[in-house]
User: Which sequence fits this backbone?
């Protein structure tokens, strides 16, 4: 009896010690370090660490980086527990925006050199990070969406031409299909974000077909999903997919089951399983990690998704990694300031897969002609709109992604899907 | 590994290592001192409360209080305004496809029935069959082994087993390699609406069968050999012995294992999270709660789902505990 009591009290006190130690280490600000959370893992994490290396060497400040693929859940928990990191970078700003509205993150106007930021960044990026008149988010790397990747060798072998107009694209797609191969590769699996690559298709079509004002009022929740413009965008995408997804390699099963990173790989099979793949500029690192022999320019190249309406020519959807500050410490300020500089951004630009929004970043820094071309398109874009899904409330965004999975599963249920999205739209923005 | 953080926390660490036992000891000694000062007849009434006090406080702080908080939150919108039952109304709206109905269907129709039966039937079958072979303990350890894997790892393993490649490609997933070997088209196990819930249950069931097997096997070993002997002398066949003697005697244990499995089925989460993320009609209540909380930041709705789940689990839990006590009392 006595030994049982002893064991139990030992377990209890040990438990208490571990809890207290866990809390203790979590909340203490050790001098000279910055805690950072972002989604980058693997090669991307190595790139980020290469970016902060010179910063650590110069200032002696240690950057404690934590990577999480489930960042939204981790951040929500840690913020409500009063234990957020100092800085966090998110691939979509909706959660950070919610934190800004709830007063959980620090306004940056007097924390960093805003005049330098204004001279180096185009106003649209600053506007994107401004909430209720205050700057809460800063973009360090950005990417361009709506790029159609293809294998130039395959195009040459069949003497296909890069389509200049939407009609060209539809013709090309029909030609490829009549030759017995599926024109497109699409892959939608992405853990809790499954469906997003298809949502890119829809928003690019909305922007190019219905124009920026419909696009804005759509993500703001003022245009209904069942409105003619949005319905038309979905059915336009349905034409790309073909009846029963017959234009896509592997049909709906492949789309739903395959991770977005592997989506373009069948283009490089011999003979090719598909000829075109729509993805943002970051996808090149997935091409080359699956097939290290591939050379940019000769083995893969891209063209921008052709304009659907001449009225809105040169419209592109962009996205980026946005940073927010949870704790205002001198170290965090310094790191935030550093991340806005061309020097810092160039390091990752050179390693590939990212575009710098900083005007001072030299075009020569891009590792290959393709990346440079992407950066040029981004600079020259006439209508640049930030990713619509990422600006919707997370409830809406998640429903949008799920709707994509349902749509490729059964295109005939489009009206039901859109009616359901309307229902969520009615409550999500409150 | 950077130990500087640990070093800077040494004072906290010392305080905790020395302080927590000191506080506990002081509580016990002090409590006992106070009890001794009471009249003799009151001591037995007070002493147990002093001893269970810390446990009660901890249970209340970490279980009771959050449960009350969740209940309150389930009646509020995101801004803390009281909105009555409308969170529940949304969850129960639009039968059979809207609200939480899909998750409820999966929990009740698929998980509760198939998962429980699968684990119970296989556990019983394995326990009874292996009871008769000399290499019993070895085989039982093998079957029990998946219990040692975290369910997330289990999900990842089975995701590979269910891997899909289009027809004509090399099938790297075990299941599709099997079906294509028999000249069947490959099946998108986790995406195909007709099989995916059962595929998830197969994976989860594989992990839990060992659990029901060992408990049922222990109950089987508790049946006195002379009973079986007597039945055999009376001319009963092995199947009759199982039906008329073994199974009725094992029934209380079967019920306890069954209800435990029902609770597991109702709170199914990890396998769904890892393997399908609730897409393609595989959503379950626990995962819906997680999604509403972390993906949608809809605290009220998430709390409502949590309460629905709680209300569904509590009767099973009470029944399970009663049954368990009954089994214990018979020993």
Assistant:
């Amino acid at each position: 009896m006595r030994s049982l009591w002893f064991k139990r009290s030992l377990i209890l006190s040990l438990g208490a010690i571990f809890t207290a130690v866990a809390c203790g280490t979590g909340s203490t600000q050790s001098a000279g370090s910055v805690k950072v959370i972002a989604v980058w893992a693997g090669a991307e994490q190595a790139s980020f660490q290469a970016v902060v290396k010179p910063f650590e060497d110069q200032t002696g400040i240690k950057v404690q980086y934590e990577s999480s693929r489930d960042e939204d859940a981790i951040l929500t928990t840690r913020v409500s527990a009063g234990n957020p990191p100092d800085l966090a970078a998110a691939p979509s700003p909706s959660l950070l925006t919610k934190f800004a509205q709830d007063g959980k993150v620090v306004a940056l106007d007097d924390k960093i050199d805003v005049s330098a930021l204004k001279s180096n960044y185009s106003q649209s990026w600053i506007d994107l990070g401004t909430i209720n008149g205050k700057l809460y988010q800063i973009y360090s790397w950005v990417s361009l969406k709506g790029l159609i990747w293809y294998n130039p060798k395959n195009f040459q072998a069949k003497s296909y031409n890069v389509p200049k107009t939407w009609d060209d694209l539809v013709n090309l797609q029909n030609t490829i299909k009549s030759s017995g191969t599926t024109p497109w590769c699409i892959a939608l699996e992405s853990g809790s974000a499954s469906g997003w690559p298809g949502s890119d298709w829809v928003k690019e079509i909305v922007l190019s077909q219905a124009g920026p004002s419909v696009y804005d009022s759509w993500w703001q929740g003022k245009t209904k999903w069942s409105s003619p413009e949005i319905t038309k965008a979905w059915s336009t995408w349905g034409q790309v997919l073909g009846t029963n997804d017959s234009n896509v390699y592997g049909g709906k099963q492949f789309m739903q089951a395959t991770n977005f990173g592997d989506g373009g790989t069948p283009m490089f099979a011999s003979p090719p399983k598909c000829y075109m793949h729509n993805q943002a500029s970051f996808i090149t690192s997935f091409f080359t990690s699956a097939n290290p022999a591939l050379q940019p320019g000769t083995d893969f190249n891209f063209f921008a998704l052709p304009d659907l309406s001449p009225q809105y020519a040169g419209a592109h959807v962009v996205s980026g990694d946005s940073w927010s500050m949870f704790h205002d410490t001198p170290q965090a300020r310094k790191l935030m300031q550093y991340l806005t500089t061309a020097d810092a951004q160039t390091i990752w630009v050179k390693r590939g897969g990212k575009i710098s929004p900083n005007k001072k970043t030299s075009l020569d820094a891009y590792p290959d002609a393709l990346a440079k071309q992407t950066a040029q398109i981004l600079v020259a874009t006439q209508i640049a709109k930030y990713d619509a899904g990422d600006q919707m409330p997370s409830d809406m965004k998640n429903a949008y992604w799920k709707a994509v999975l349902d749509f490729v599963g059964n295109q005939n249920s489009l009206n039901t899907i859109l009616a359901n999205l309307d229902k969520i739209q009615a409550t999500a923005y409150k | 590994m950077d130990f500087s953080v640990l070093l800077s926390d040494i004072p906290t660490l010392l305080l905790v290592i020395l302080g927590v036992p000191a506080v506990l000891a002081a509580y016990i000694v002090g409590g006992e001192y106070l009890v001794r000062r009471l009249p003799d007849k009151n001591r037995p009434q007070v002493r147990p409360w002093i001893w269970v006090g810390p446990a009660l406080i901890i249970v209340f702080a970490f279980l009771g209080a959050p449960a009350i908080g969740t209940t309150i939150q389930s009646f509020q919108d995101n801004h803390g305004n009281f909105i009555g039952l409308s969170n529940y109304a949304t969850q129960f709206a639009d039968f059979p496809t809207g609200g939480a109905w899909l998750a409820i269907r999966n929990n009740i129709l698929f998980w509760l029935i198939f998962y429980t039966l699968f684990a119970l039937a296989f556990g019983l079958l394995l326990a009874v069959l292996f009871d008769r072979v000399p290499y019993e303990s070895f085989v039982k350890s093998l079957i029990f082994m998946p219990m040692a894997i975290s369910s997330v790892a289990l999900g990842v393993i089975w995701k590979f087993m269910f891997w899909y490649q289009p027809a004509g490609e090399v099938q790297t997933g075990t299941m599709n390699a099997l079906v294509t070997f028999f000249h069947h088209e490959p099946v998108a196990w986790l995406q195909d609406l007709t099989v995916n819930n059962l595929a998830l249950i197969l994976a989860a069931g594989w992990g839990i069968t060992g659990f029901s097997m060992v408990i049922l096997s222990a109950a089987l070993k508790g049946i006195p050999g002379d009973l079986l002997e007597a039945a055999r002398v009376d001319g009963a066949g092995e199947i009759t012995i199982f039906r008329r003697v073994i199974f009725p005697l094992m029934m209380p244990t079967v019920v306890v294992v069954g209800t435990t499995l029902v609770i597991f089925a109702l709170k199914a989460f990890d396998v769904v999270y890892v393997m399908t993320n609730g897409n393609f009609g595989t959503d379950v209540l626990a995962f819906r709660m997680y999604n509403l909380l972390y993906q949608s930041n809809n605290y009220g709705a998430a709390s409502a789902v949590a309460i629905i789940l709680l209300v569904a689990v509590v009767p099973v839990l009470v029944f399970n505990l009663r049954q368990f006590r009954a089994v214990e009392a018979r020993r």
